[in-house]
Specification:
The complex is a heterodimer.
Chain A: H1 29-66, E1 72-73, E2 80-81, H2 89-96, E3 98-100, E4 106-108, H3 118-148, H4 154-160, H5 162-166, H6 169-179, H7 185-190, H8 200-227, H9 232-240, H10 245-273, H11 277-282, H12 292-300, H13 304-328, H14 333-338
Antiparallel strand pairs in A: 1-2, 3-4
Helix pairs in contact in A: 1-13, 3-8, 3-10, 6-8, 8-10, 10-13, 12-13
Chain B: H1 3-51, H2 71-77, H3 85-116, H4 122-133, H5 137-150, H6 157-181, H7 186-193, H8 198-226, H9 230-235, H10 243-248, H11 260-280, H12 282-292
Classes of the chains: A mainly alpha, B mainly alpha.
Amino acid sequence: MATELGPTSVKEPASGGTPIHHAPKGVGEDNRIASQGRWASWLLAPTVIALAIVIVYPIISAIVMSFEKDAGLDPVTGLFTAGGPAGFSNYVNWIAQQCAAPGGGTVACPPGTLGAQFWSATATTFFFTVVTVTLETILGFWMALIMARTFKGRSLVRAAVLVPWAIPTAVTAQLWLFIFAFEGIANKLFNTTILWTGSEWPAKWAVIIADTWKTTPFMALLILAGLQMIPAEVYEAAKVDGASAWQRFRMITLPLVKPALMVAILFRTLDALRMFDLPYILTEGSNNTTTLSILVINQIRQGFNAAAALSTITFIIIFIVAFIFVRFLGANVVEQQTGAGKGKK
Amino acid sequence: MTAATELRAKQDRGRKVAQNREKWAQGRTYISAAVILIWCLAPAYWMVVTAFRNVGFTYDTSLLPTHVTLDNFITAFDTSFGNRFGQALLNSVFIGVTVTVISLVIGVFAAYALARLNFRFKYLVLGFILGASMFPGVALITPLFQLFTNIGWIGTYQALIIPNISFVLPLTVYTMTSFFREMPWELEEAARVDGCTQGQAFRKVIMPLAAPAIFTTAILAFISSWNEFLIASQLSNDATQPVTVAIANFAGAQPQQIPYTAIMAAGTIVTIPLVILVLIFQRKIVAGLTAGAVK
């Protein structure tokens, strides 16, 4: 079984899928492809239809909603606004941080309202993403390098890293809230008296530490899987040629683990950009820990259509980041998936 | 001192240096391993220890269990402060099992097609499914919230199950796809040669081989549904809330006091079965996790 965590050998051509063994080239090949295509569409239909219902339909519906005005009392001005087509005004209002003003028109949203938080939420989201993903990559890489070595108790370590991953994020948030409580163990250990969830930077760091704790193991396991794809002979050869440990790491490990690493970083980045559970429970979004996801959730009950515009903006931001990754940083996800056995075991 | 003994002494010294270096490297590995163990396990251990601590000693800092009691577990299930943890456990199991079964039944066909068949648009379909799994939940929640409000579904089980499929199904499909790709399909051929029909070959040869993969995928699917919080926090009510929401909103006797020991007990109850499951099937889970590469 190639699912064993061990060095895997054979590399199949990355043409996708296993070749069908009983298919001799030549006569009947086109027929076979056609019949396989028919088969495939029947087999894929349920999944594609299900995803269309649960994802594509809501997306389209959100986009349609985002071009409508919210009807009802404006929470800021207390005036009744009728619905109707909004054009891009929902989007413009978020990005320019404008709220409806009495007597039509818009004014800058007063501080404290949701409308005034768009750019700070965006900045917070990106700050969390950059810091947590960087920390997780470095820590995860280090953990993976350790776990790739042979020593007694290695399987124990590999089992232990699964524990933070298996704990639901909501529980993780409450657990770290307890650790960071004023009388909690963190302050006792470091002999500090920090109100961790009481001011901006401690609150931000509380979220970052909790997130790093929870997701570093996942990163480590992905990178470890990538490391195990590298044949030992390569290292032997480098040793014989007199490469130092640092050179072996730089010239062999890094380039060869790069595809798996990029995919891991991509997944984590997209995950961090939609971060919700941790800050929502740990700090309730206070002290500038409101991420875009939290802002959307807070907005839903104040107006569907503005929330739809904001969630579409969030989606577009995440999409652009994913596009940049795949396009410029060579995170070839589909290739990883279909190229049989490349760092994805 | 002859040249020979001198040479031998030199060799001995060289060997000693090498051995020492080896020992030193091993030692460093063990220290690093210990650091990883503490980093991963200490917070989880702290949760379990606190769960068994008398509520009066919530902030006790001794590393070993002190003032041991089971009261917190009783408090966790106590409904007098508006917590419905017991009900939430049942809800989570019900939602998780339903989502897992639906996703597996639908997803297994798609995975077979993606792993075994060649057809046009294969990469497109794969890309679509991968994209679906990275989808931000908030982009779905606004229209769903409005829709479910209009049709009176807020607080129903289906309102929690259907959105969960949106991220569990993609995970299921491509975890299964990568498992299927590694199966020895030649055996199917061999069974056909030995006179099995296509159906028999699938039932008698392929199914037993695929069972572990399907089971692993089921665990991963269940865990991701079990961990879902965002959608549930908005679309459930007191009667249908899953454990994640129950734990996030856990209330104590006084509104000012967070009942940490009871929350840690609830967290322990929620976590322990998962951890045991994950540790038993560790190898398979890691394989599936790194194949699926999704939380």
